[in-house]
Amino acid sequence: MTRKLLILQHVPWERPALLGDILTAHGVEWELDNVVTATSREALPRLDELSGVVILGGPMGALDAGAHPGLGLEADLVREAFDGGVPLLGICLGHQIVATALGAALHSGAADEVGMGEVTVAADDAAFGRAGTSQPVLHWHHDVVEAPDGATVVASTAQTPNQAFRIGDAVFATQFHPEIDARMLGEWLAVPEMAEDLSADVARTVAADFAAAEARMRPLADAAFGAFAGAARSRL
After folding, report:
1. Distance CA 90, CA 147 (A)
2. DSSP character for 43?
3. Fewer CB within 10 Å, N or C, the chain?
4. Residue in 10, 14, 92, 95 annotated catalytic
5. Is 26 a catalytic residue?
6. What stretch of H or E contains 23?
7. In sequence order, what E strands does the chain have?
8. Phi, psi at 68, each rounded to 5°
9. Annotated catalytic residue, options 10, 95, 141, 177
């Protein structure tokens, strides 16, 4: 059986971007799906059909399964994948869905991090580097999630202590957006739902600030997504 990597999307403007490019470069086939309105587990592939699972970002809350029933299906898939040792990657909302599905608490509206910033590396990590160093990132969130039991937090900020975490070699999640490239940022800035989230100061400078930091951000994406691709390839 040829397995594919499933990438779950919540809104059209949240795309894999660099993540998709890196997966393809590593020979990992992937498919994009959106199950936000689905109500049956049959909307998602069986676990034995998957080489890995990615959950992207979106504007809804991680626990809003009442309004968006597919989020509950995604949480079920997270638990299945975790129990089955299937590689898991979560970004922004996906980070929160992975964490809450594994028992972590969510704090709605606990942060105001939108735009360019830096995270502090909280533990030595193959992708992030040495503990105590910093990494430029693009933030776009207000909710904060704690780390699930057994996780190692590898990046943090004052507002969001759990900016990224790992559980062993199979689970990796980031609150910020390592997948974004300049093209997708430009698309986000043209989407009213995204642009409305920016302060006037950030709206004026975010594109230039991103361009100035892009060369420092790319190695993290290459390392983190490359390692995830390697984990997925082990199931092909």
Report:
1. 13
2. G
3. N
4. 92
5. no
6. helix 18-25
7. 4-8, 30-33, 50-55, 88-91, 106-107, 113-121, 134-141, 144-145, 152-156, 164-167, 171-174
8. -130, 80
9. 177
- CATH code of residue 81: 3.40.50.880
- pTM of the prediction? 0.98
Kindly tell me the burial class for residue 187, based on how many C-beta atoms sit within 10 Å of its own C-beta (0-12, 13-18, 19 or more). Answer: middle
List the domain range (segments joined by +) for residue 134.
Answer: 4-233
Does 92 qualify as catalytic in the annotation? yes
Contact 96, 60 (CB under 8 A): no
Given 14, 74, 113, 179, the catalytic residue: 179
pLDDT 10s digits, 183-227: 999 999 999 999 999 999 999 999 999 999 999 999 999 999 999
Q: How many domains does the chain have?
A: 1
